[in-house]
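Justification of computing resources. Each target in the renewal requires a structure prediction run like the one illustrated here; the chain below, 93 residues long, is used simply to show the kind of job we budget for.
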Amino acid sequence: MTMTSNSAGAGIVKRACFDSEYRRQLTICFETDPDYQLAPGMTADGVASKMLAALDRGSASKDGLAFRRTCKALGIPHTYKAIHAYRGSANLY
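Resulting structure tokens:
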């Protein structure tokens, strides 16, 4: 395997790790925090999918508890730059 392949593979694994941890943290927020309420017909996983897609587009807010907890759990700074670098996103602002 070339260095590029290893790097790409690691990026995919980190992205999956971030996304999985975010889904877990968001689910915890919906189960334990009264400020987090699901709209009728929505699931925590559905909200996570929408938020992660918005993050890829550069239109998500990272200020919520689930993003903060995800960054803390993964040991990365709670900044857009760090989140996008960890996930291997093109949006590095």
